[in-house]
Design brief:
By secondary structure, this protein is α/β, with parallel strands linked by helices. It folds into three domains: about 20-95, Roll (2,3-Dihydroxybiphenyl 1,2-Dioxygenase, domain 1); about 105-165, Roll (2,3-Dihydroxybiphenyl 1,2-Dioxygenase, domain 1), CATH 3.10.180; about 170-200, no CATH class. The chain is built from eight helices and eight strands; from the N terminus they run ααβαβαβββαβββααα. It has a four-stranded mixed β-sheet with strand order 1-4-3-2, with helices on one face. Strands 5-8-7-6 form a four-stranded mixed β-sheet, with no helix packed on it. β6 (about 135) and β7 (about 140-150) form a beta hairpin. α7 (about 175-185) packs across α8 (about 190-200). About 10% of the residues are buried.
Length: about 200
């Protein structure tokens, strides 16, 4: 069944409000020790939980979309605002690095950071000899720094001019439907579809 036909444009905004943001990101590493040292030691994120995938859980790993390895280690870090970033530890050499610019790959992770803490992050990265690019302004009102973790994952921190202590990500970046249409009108010429997209922004 067509998803749009099933949901209906008028219902979609209400359905979207049921979400409460990211619960956790689940990424991969083949060196959990270095990953703990980076996220806790370099970035200062608290290690929240360390576990192994329960025995036998790999039997239905493919159906769940989990790694097909028995009893692999899984650790979670506090990335702020009651949200977690987690890592599965793959057996060394079992998987090749992916092209982060490939379709369905994760291009980068951007963490929200209070504006006044941006210089503290730079000091931590400098202390550990980690190269970074920034701060630069990717958009008006934003300040970003780019760097890589120990696994080669591209990371970014983003600060806001407004609400600098407690960034309001959506509030600061929300466009009006007409502003979004300036870009989206070049994506498709179907006026019915474009009106539906405006409803998505309600």
């Amino acid at each position: 069944m067509n998803v749009q036909a099933k949901i209906g444009a008028a219902q979609l905004p209400t359905e979207k409000r049921a979400f409460r943001g990211v619960h956790h990101l689940a990424l991969n590493t083949e060196d959990m020790k270095s990953t703990i040292d980076f996220y806790a030691g370099v970035l200062g994120m608290r290690l929240v939980h360390a576990m192994r995938v329960p025995k036998g859980a790999d039997a239905n790993a493919e159906a769940r979309g989990n790694p097909p390895f028995p009893e692999i280690r899984h650790c979670f870090f506090d990335m702020g605002n009651d949200r977690l970033i987690g890592f599965f530890e793959m057996p060394k050499g079992a998987k090749k690095p992916v092209d982060r610019n490939g379709i369905a790959a994760m291009q980068h992770v951007s963490f929200a950071l209070p504006r006044e803490d941006h210089h503290k992050l730079h000091a931590r990265l400098d202390k550990h000899g980690i190269y970074y690019l920034g701060p630069i302004k990717p958009l008006e009102g934003l300040l970003s720094t780019y760097f890589y973790d120990n696994n080669g994952i591209r990371l970014k921190v983003t600060s806001h001019d407004k609400n600098s202590i407690d960034p309001k990500v959506i509030e600061d970046l929300q466009q009006t439907p007409d502003e979004a249409m300036d870009e989206l009108i070049g994506l498709h010429s179907d006026n019915e579809w474009l009106e539906r997209v405006k409803a998505y922004m309600a």
